[in-house]
Specification:
About 40% of the residues lie in helices and about 20% in strands. It has ten helices and eleven strands.
């Protein structure tokens, strides 16, 4: 029987980390629009467990879990960084200094030095952008369907590349770099665009914006490693590829943790002693 649970109630997803009967850290997620399912899961399987909360919607979830009194809360940034440090130890990732980008509904960017950390910026671009723009442009509503569909998309039908602008002229920078996200929609009128192309284009915006901000932060703070985490990366192969290739192009070292979206929940679990 599980005795301790860490819950990260985010804007889009609620992530859970807990010790199973074999004392192995296990994970589960719910839509944050369905806190009732979180309550049912806790009451049916883990009614005697102690719970520690984190995340922007923790107070809302706490009201749903009426049977649980005085639930402890950990500040989201602290829980996430503690979770990241635990994951790095488990995955034998040696980095004393790094930029950490937490790509959730939006994106929060931190600098980590040894065991200390500080938030240094962020952007409203993230998983909420993918879901919201995806719905507006394609009518699709299922997030998982979107990220799978994007794998079949062709960004060249959506974006303008540097090579599109310079054509036969000598290229001043790498021709495959994006000159304008979605600029091709107006400049390439003859091309047929599919929903897969549109979703892939949105993924391009998210990946390039987040990676660019992180690279600039890494340059400003003199670090080489950039650790990308967050639920938006979960099962999102295309977004990981976009971020990885752009980060490497700019001569930084991208690191992806195994459980991208659960760092906050892990931190809450570890706090729950």
């Amino acid at each position: 029987m599980t005795t301790r649970i860490g819950i990260d109630a985010g804007g889009t997803l609620t992530k859970v980390a807990y010790w199973n009967d074999e004392n192995i850290m296990s994970f589960k997620s719910f839509l944050s629009s369905d806190f009732q399912s979180v309550k049912e899961w806790v009451e049916s399987k883990h009614s005697s467990s102690s719970i520690c909360l984190t995340g922007g919607r923790a107070e809302q979830l706490k009201k749903i879990l009426l049977s649980k009194e005085d639930l402890p809360y950990v500040v989201e940034f602290d829980a996430t960084m503690n979770g990241v440090m635990h994951q790095m130890k488990q995955e034998i990732i040696n980095s004393s200094s790094a930029i950490i980008a937490n790509i959730g509904t939006g994106t929060s960017i931190h600098i980590m030095h040894d065991n200390s950390h500080a938030r240094i910026g962020g952007t409203g671009v993230g998983g909420g952008t993918l879901l919201g723009l995806g719905m507006a442009l394609t009518g699709l509503t299922d997030y998982k369907e979107m990220i799978q569909l994007s794998l079949n998309g062709n960004r060249s039908a959506i974006d303008v590349l540097v090579s599109d602008i310079y054509k036969d002229n000598k290229l001043p920078i790498t021709g495959s770099l994006t000159a304008s996200n979605f600029g091709g929609v107006s400049l390439k009128n003859e091309e047929t665009r599919t929903n897969a192309d549109l979703i892939a284009g949105i993924q391009g915006i998210i990946g390039e914006v987040v990676a660019t901000l992180c690279i600039q932060a890494a340059d400003a703070h003199g670090v080489e490693d950039i650790i990308y985490i967050g639920s938006t990366l979960e099962d999102n192969i295309l977004l990981q590829e976009i971020i990885e290739s752009y980060t490497i192009l700019k001569k930084k070292n991208p690191i992806f943790l195994e459980k991208h979206g659960y760092s906050g929940a892990i931190g809450a679990l570890l706090e729950n002693n």
